[in-house]
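[Meeting: bench + compute handoff]

Bench side (C.D.) handed over the final construct sequence. Compute side (W.E.) agreed to return the predicted structure before the next meeting so the bench team could plan truncations. Sequence as handed over:
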Amino acid sequence: MNIFQQVKENVSTRQAAEVYGLKINRNGMACCPFHHDRHPSMKVDKVFYCFACGEKGDVISFTSKMFGITPYEAARKLAEDFQIVLEKQDNKEKKKFKKQAIPKRNAFQLTREFEKWEQFCIRILSDYLHLLEDWKVRYAPQSFDEAWDDRFTEACKQLTTVNYYLDILLEGELRDRIDFLSDKGEEVKQLEKRMEQFRRRNHEENGRGSQQDGSQLRTSNACELV
């Protein structure tokens, strides 16, 4: 079990929010700290969701946003602040990963296969992240009562998750990165297919002189990253 799983099993978003100064009423509602909120619009329990600005996530993403730190740093902070005793690898697992147990990334003697697979996931997730960032600005609603474009909705839903995954791959311990590639690798491969479909359509449209952008990558065939 990695650090993210251990933290989420031991601390709810409500517990963290109260410790970090958020006032939550009996109905579990609080003023959202992520926008100028005069009336409680954020529901806080095991996870959080703001009905006004749409921010949502778990205890790690809440802490990350609250303090302006990465999800990995947020997990470390929560473990320290709530005195969570993180599980250590058992002897069998330690032997299995003895050579990789050096804390500094440059010291790892990574196999070529692992290295290629990790870089592949980083590349695909980075491309997707840039697309989501563009969508969140380009398709943001212009008024309170305007219906949300599905691309804007996807960006709001997936940005935190994609940043979370990239933090694991770029800053996580080797054990966490191995777990990610094992658990989420197939999802990233499906995301690559979706991105490739967009690139082909974009190339075809440009060949006919049409100006194309990320709007062709619709959420009707979205790859859920959870």
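W.E. noted at the follow-up: The helical segments are 3-10, 13-19, 59-67, 71-81, 91-96, 112-138, 150-171, 174-207. C.D. will use this when planning the next construct.
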